[in-house]
Amino acid sequence: MSGPLVVLVGPMGVGKSTVGQLLAERLGLSYRDTDDDIVAAQGRTVAEIFVDEGEAAFRAIEKAAVHRALAEHDGVLALGGGAILDADTRALLAGQRVAYLSMDVEEAVKRTGLNAARPLLAVNPRKQWRELMEARRHLYEEVATAVVATDGRTPEEVTEAALDAL
Ligand code: S3P
């Protein structure tokens, strides 16, 4: 019950899962992802939960999953991109080592494109990305102890930069 050693935050598609697994390997730690926890517990995909119950219900499920993982996991923990919208979650992250993996809007559009599995981007990806990042950038920065830019970098390069920055 010691809590995570490294938490990864940042927008969807930025590479939290890939970098998180590489970081965990490098540090000899286990990797956990709160979206995976939610899918396993619910027996549904994130997109299905959004369609079935709406975003507010998903956020409540997500908050519980994130708080459980923060209490239980003592390795590398990646949070879903919107987890930092919750003020209680941001408060829980104070005092943790938190890496914010960042990318600019054009990189985000390029990486995620039109992706039905990502319900927040289904209609107009560029406009939605711009709004999403304007609403969230300061929240990622608020919880971060290190900001790691991912634009034009491979997952291995991002992992090295995160190890240096953390
Ligand atoms: C979301 C990010 C997703 C997932 C859901 C909502 C968001 O997680 O939780 O689609 O609001 O940014 P990833 O960041 O792991 O893709």
From TrEMBL:
Residue numbers binding substrate: D35, R59, G81, R136
KW rRNA processing (keyword) present: no
Localization per record: Cytoplasm
Cofactor(s) in the UniProt record: Mg(2+)
Residues that coordinate or bind ATP: G13, V14, G15, K16, S17, T18, R118, R153
Class in the EC hierarchy, top level: transferase
Chief place where the protein resides: cytoplasm
InterPro entries: P-loop_NTPase, Shikimate/glucono_kinase, Shikimate_kinase/TSH1, Shikimate_kinase_CS
Entry annotated with the keyword Protein transport: no
Domain of life of the native organism: Bacteria
UniProt binding sites for Mg(2+): S17
Cofactor stoichiometry and binding remark: Binds 1 Mg(2+) ion per subunit.
Annotated pathway: Metabolic intermediate biosynthesis; chorismate biosynthesis; chorismate from D-erythrose 4-phosphate and phosphoenolpyruvate: step 5/7
Record's keyword terms, sorted: Amino-acid biosynthesis, Aromatic amino acid biosynthesis, ATP-binding, Cytoplasm, Kinase, Magnesium, Metal-binding, Nucleotide-binding, Transferase
Entry's Gene Ontology molecular function annotations: shikimate kinase activity
EC number: 2.7.1.71
Catalytic activity of the protein: shikimate + ATP = 3-phosphoshikimate + ADP + H(+)
Role summary: Catalyzes the specific phosphorylation of the 3-hydroxyl group of shikimic acid using ATP as a cosubstrate.
Family under the similarity heading: Belongs to the shikimate kinase family.
PANTHER family the UniProt entry points to: SHIKIMATE KINASE (PTHR21087), SHIKIMATE KINASE 1, CHLOROPLASTIC (PTHR21087:SF16)
HAMAP family: Shikimate_kinase (MF_00109)
Oligomeric form and interacting partners: Monomer.
Identification of the protein by name: Shikimate kinase
UniProt organism field: Streptomyces tibetensis
Record lineage: Bacteria, Bacillati, Actinomycetota, Actinomycetes, Kitasatosporales
